Sequence to fold (180 residues):
Amino acid sequence: MRVPVLTREQMTPEQQAVHDAAVAGKRGRMPPPALAWIHSPELAMRTQHLGEFIRYDTAFGPALMEIAVLVTAKYWRSHYEWYAHRRLAETANLDAAIINAIRDGQPLPPVDEKTQVIYDYAKTLHETRDVPMPLHNRMLAAWGPRGVAEVIGICGYYTLVSMTLNGFDVGLPDGETSEI
Fold:
């Protein structure tokens, strides 16, 4: 990592507050991007709270949320993000064929509309920086306004995460190689 990874003892009181909030939250630990954000405690506090919501409390549930995360990681070629979230997607029982299709830039295998539209929306938003009205209407029909807001939020938050991991050169664990 391009900045020092601080132990709790090396942190300022403001940084310790962020650390303690992250550890006390649903993650139970400091996630890798927060180890970089901690050098700006206010940014770290706000983003780790947002990340906790995005990761655990959207309308999609763990497996479907991971589709939007993996699309984002693939788009940004964020090797660590892909590495971490592939494992989370597998733990959430997301079909390996879906994960591999995202990795390989291939269409998804046959899935239900609620799954397909999350993928289509996230992929289109990243690739074109726009969402055509018919696709927006499909997302709205499948997930309602909350789902539209949250899929955009997932893509936006994980874009920030991917940029952080890439910008701070957060590497893969020893012995791991990138899939993307």
